[in-house]
Amino acid sequence: MTISSRFDDLIHDSRCLAWLKNEWLKYNRFTRLKMLEKQ
After folding, report:
1. How is 3-17 classified by DSSP, letter by letter?
2. Which of 9, 10, 26, 39 is most open to solvent, judged by the fewest CB atoms within 10 Å of its CB?
């Protein structure tokens, strides 16, 4: 395991986290809209 491949893994992980956070925010917004429609 070289330092550069370790660094690539870190970059990849942070990208995955950013994507997950983005999807989570979209999902939250969607569910909030649905709840508002029901009221």
Report:
1. HHHHHHHHHHHHHHH
2. 39
- Say what the pTM is: 0.60
The residue type of 14 is: S
Q: Digits of tens for pLDDT over the chain (39 positions)?
A: 577 888 899 889 999 999 999 999 999 999 999 999 987
Q: Give the domain extent around 11.
A: 5-37
Dihedrals phi, psi of 2, to nearest 5 degrees: -90, 165
Q: How many distinct structural domains can be found in the chain? A: 1
State the Cα–Cα distance between residues 17 and 13, nearest whole angstrom.
6
3 state DSSP class of 29: helix
